[in-house]
Design brief:
The structure holds two protein chains of two kinds.
Chain A (H helix, E strand, L loop, with lengths): L6 E5 L3 H13 L3 E5 L2 H11 L3 E4 L6 H13 L7 E6 L1 H5 L1 E2 L11 E4 L4 H11 L17
Parallel strand pairs in A: 1-2, 1-3, 3-4, 4-6
Helix pairs in contact in A: 2-3
Chain B lengths: L6 H5 L6 H9 L3 H9 L5 H7 L3 H5 L2 H4 L5 H10 L17 E5 L3 H12 L3 E5 L19 H12 L4 E3 L10 H6 L4 E4 L5 E3 L11 E3 H10 L8 E5 L3 H12 L4 E6 L10 H9 L3 E4 L1 E9 L2 E14 L5 E14 L2 E4 L3 E2 L20 E2 L4 E2 L4 E3 L2 H4 L4 H21 L18 H4 L15 H4 L12 H8 L9 E3 L9 H5 L5 E3 L3 E3 L9 H5 L5 E3 L4 H15 L6 E6 H4 L10 E5 L7 H9 L4 E6 L8 H18 L7 E6 L2 E2 L12
Parallel strand pairs in B: 1-2, 1-4, 2-3, 4-17, 6-13, 7-8, 7-13, 8-9, 22-23, 22-24, 24-25
Antiparallel strand pairs in B: 5-14, 10-11, 11-12, 15-16, 18-21, 19-20, 25-26
Helix pairs in contact in B: 2-3, 2-7, 2-18, 4-7, 7-18, 8-15, 11-12, 23-24
The chains are: A alpha/beta, B alpha/beta.
């Protein structure tokens, strides 16, 4: 019997992007749910306890997005959920973000836009699944 | 065997021959000094202003009194007015074309090197003007004209520059590949300030350093308040804080996690900030942005108890009970910078799990053949001179790859480094004060963005250059000629010579005064660029020129003294030596044999002469020679003139063996 499909929760107010990512993830065999604002996202996360949450930051105020990230991480019932922040907040505020334990306690931070290949590689990596792409050998050998 | 590097040169990422340019300045040969710098560094004017001068940190003079002011001397020599440079003959393009992304120090250095090798080079710059992150440096430290001067000299070599052209936005990597560029070197720098997702993020006037400083540089309006907090303790934080003061912010405080002793900014930057009334809050980290009506109203900070762990890894710890609120109407984040990798989107250039470009630091290569990285985008934050060095390195690797198909690091320039001064030599060396850099006083600086360091005048530069100890430029011995006669051993004022099978001068002791070379009876010793043959030619040539006037006097002038004082006698034979220590008794005898009866030696004051002990010995040797010459030429006299005074004709000759 094969293992049940991994679950992914998308939280983003950009509905078109959510639709595109949902298609992509479902095609790869993931169970996908979606929320379009922070509060619904938090409730859905608590209800479904997904293996992975992909979270936007700017849904209204960026402050609320960062706060949601901290709430998700602080929730003991979600301790097994991985957290990927996918946001254009850095581009908008001309800053570069990286996860940190105090203020941005995500497992990974990716800046929008990302291409499908990068996103899927990230999702597979975070869920502990092998990357089907060819492995790079020593860079110097390629030249 | 190669000579050891002086520590200053070894410390410079581009291995500037510091000792050489400083000595050329000391002799008044300014144009040649500038050429020495230019040979390895296309940004001499910029580095004369803002280099972090790792050379000075290693200057051996620092162990005696104070390091030689190498940055200030570099600045001096780049500002000397010279005749306009003749139009440069462009190197013909005989090789393929190369695209360089980013017109900062690493990009433009790589561009210049590759252009000089015969490649056609196009530089793409996302901003409206070249200079990269140098444009972030406030104009009171790096005036725009100084940056432009170096950049224009680089571009004048036939490099095409396309501004307002950002990779990933205006042009894609694939476009460049399709355009036939044989190699693409991305030197895009770290163009983003690091953000902090604090509670209160998004408040008005909670801003990042880079966009703020770019706006200031471009002259765009920058809304500021009356009280500002700058988060960070590096040199960029100091730049931001000092800039805000000049924009009229009345109270500026820098808060940083590091303790006072750990603050990353240089001591001189912190001192300048303090002079301008900027406050410091070490060991505090931001906790929350306080807001009022959507604007910054202050910052809540928490006490930092530790920044680094026992292994010096960044591992901060806080005291959550120790919190304080500071009122401010502006907060600027200057906690570091990161690269913008969005240009890799959809390209074969891979990123790692932390979003960094996968690259080989040694070979500058990425996961995509023929796409290279250089500068901060490859190595992380660094200084301008490190970026320049990295640009040179990348150019060398790319050139080799394009010529041979082989990817290989350039061989390291490893040489021995001159060691510490032996304690015994310390007491024999003169202490000479470092020349202070003239400055506009702190409060007056705040009136605008005018440069506040005013630069050395010629007298100060000559004096300062005269402090260089010539580390490692000691004698070269012709072992065939050396008779191990002990003359050099007895004369050396620093007791730095031993006679093994032949003469050996200890490089860590020798200051290259030249006394041994002057008095070696075999002519077996050469010091620096000065050769006995050249000086003999100078004597013969100048005697020939003066002969119709039947000169009876000769004036021999120390180059250090000559450039600040004049000793002019139209009827005399004029000669010049790097220091009186280079003048040999037999030189005087050559003059005497040609009818010269009055010899005047113009030298620096012993108080200002780095070879003071050697100078004293040289005077004894020369006086003794003249006294002996009087046996056949009774009218012969010698006088030593310093600072316009005539010295005693006959210093003691004790201890001098001829």
């Amino acid at each position: 019997m094969s293992a049940p499909a991994k679950s992914v929760l998308l939280i983003d107010d950009d509905r078109e992007l959510v639709t595109a990512h949902k298609l992509l993830l479902e095609e790869a065999g993931y169970r996908v749910s979606a929320a379009y604002d922070g509060q619904s996202g938090l409730e859905l996360a608590r209800a479904e306890k997904p293996d992975l949450v992909i979270l936007d930051i700017i849904m209204g105020s960026p402050e609320a997005g960062f706060e949601l990230c901290r709430e998700l991480r602080a929730d003991a019932s979600l301790k097994n959920s991985r957290l990927l922040v996918l946001s254009a907040v850095g581009r908008q505020f001309q800053m570069a973000f990286e996860p940190d334990s105090l203020w941005l306690p995500a497992d990974r931070f990716l800046e929008k836009p990302v291409d499908a290949e990068t996103l899927m590689a990230e999702v597979r990596g975070m869920l502990g699944q092998p990357d089907p792409r060819p492995t790079k050998t020593a860079l110097s050998q390629e030249h | 065997m190669e000579r050891p590097f002086p520590p200053c040169q070894a410390a410079c990422p581009v291995r500037t021959d510091t000792r050489e340019y400083v000595n050329l300045i000391a002799w008044g040969r300014f144009e040649e000094a500038l050429q020495v710098i230019r040979k390895v560094n296309p940004f001499p004017s910029v580095c004369g202003r803002i280099c972090q001068h790792p050379c000075e940190a290693k200057c051996r003079r620092g162990a005696l009194d104070a390091a030689v002011a190498l940055k200030e001397l570099k600045r001096f020599v780049t500002e000397i007015e010279t005749a306009p440079a003749p139009a440069m003959e462009l190197v013909p393009v005989t090789r393929g074309k190369i695209a360089i992304v980013g017109a900062g120090p690493s990009g433009l250095t790589a561009a210049q090197d590759l252009r000089e090798m015969g490649y056609g080079v196009t530089v793409l710059e996302r901003l409206a003007h070249p200079g990269g992150m140098l444009n972030l440096i406030p104009k009171y430290r790096l005036p725009e004209r100084i940056l432009r001067k170096d950049v224009e000299a680089i571009l004048a070599r036939g490099i095409e520059l396309k501004c307002n052209c950002e990779i990933g936005r205006d042009v894609q990597l694939s476009d460049l590949q399709a355009d036939g560029y044989q190699a693409i070197i991305v030197c895009a720098g770290l163009s983003r300030s690091r953000g902090l997702a604090l509670p209160g993020f998004g408040a008005e006037r909670f801003v990042a350093a880079i966009p703020l400083m770019m706006d200031v540089w471009a002259g765009n309006p920058v809304p500021v308040g009356r009280k500002a907090l700058v988060i960070g303790g590096g040199n960029v934080a100091v730049d931001v804080a000092r800039t805000l003061r000049r924009l009229g912010v009345e109270q500026v405080t820098m808060a940083c996690m590091e303790s006072h002793a750990e603050i990353p900014a240089s001591e001189e930057e912190i001192a300048a900030a303090t002079e301008e009334g900027i406050g410091l809050m070490p060991s505090w980290a931001p906790k929350r942005v306080l807001k009022k009506d959507g604007h910054v109203a202050g910052l809540e900070l928490m006490r930092v108890t530790r920044v680094f762990d026992d292994k010096k890894r960044f591992s901060p710890q806080y005291d959550p009970a120790h919190v304080k609120a500071v009122a401010a109407d502006m907060v600027v984040l200057t906690i570091g910078q990161a690269g913008d990798t969005s240009w890799t989107l959809g390209s074969p250039v891979k990123l790692d799990r932390r979003g960094r470009i996968v690259a080989d630091r040694e070979l500058h290569s990425t996961s995509e053949p023929r796409v290279f990285l250089a500068g901060e985008v490859l190595n992380g934050p660094g200084s301008a001179i490190q970026a320049i060095a990295d640009g040179r390195r990348a150019a060398a690797i790319v050139d080799q790859f394009l010529r041979t198909g082989i990817m290989k690091s350039p061989p390291p320039e490893d040489r021995a480094i001159v060691g510490e001064f032996p304690k015994a030599a310390h007491d024999k060396l003169h202490r000479l004060d470092r020349m202070p850099m003239p400055q506009v006083p702190g409060p007056e600086r705040l009136a605008g963005f005018h440069e506040h360091e005013l630069g050395y005048d010629q007298a100060a530069a000559l004096t300062e250059a005269g402090r260089c100890l010539n580390c490692g430029s000691g004698p070269t011995i012709d072992e065939v000629k050396c008779a191990s006669c002990l003359a050099c051993f007895r004369l050396c004022p620093l007791d730095g010579i031993t006679i093994q099978k032949k003469m050996v001068a200890a490089p860590e002791t020798c200051q290259a005064c030249g006394l041994c070379a002057a008095e070696c009876p075999q002519g077996a010793i050469t010091v620096g660029h000065w050769t006995r043959e050249q000086f003999r030619e100078q004597i013969d040539r100048n005697l020939d020129v003066a002969r119709p006037a039947r000169p009876r006097a000769a004036v021999v002038t120390c180059a250090h003294a000559a450039t600040s004082k004049s000793e002019s006698d139209a009827a005399a034979v004029h000669l010049r030596v790097p220091c009186v220590t280079h003048l040999a008794a037999r030189d005087l005898l050559r003059l005497i044999a040609n009818g010269i009866e009055e010899i005047r030696v113009v030298l620096c004051s012993p108080a200002a002469c780095k070879h003071a002990s050697g100078q004293q010995r040289a005077k004894q040797v020369l006086t003794a020679a003249v006294q002996r010459a009087r046996a056949v030429r009774p009218k012969v006299t010698i006088e030593f003139v310093e600072a316009g005074q005539v010295l005693s004709e006959s210093p003691s000759v004790q201890g001098v063996s001829q």
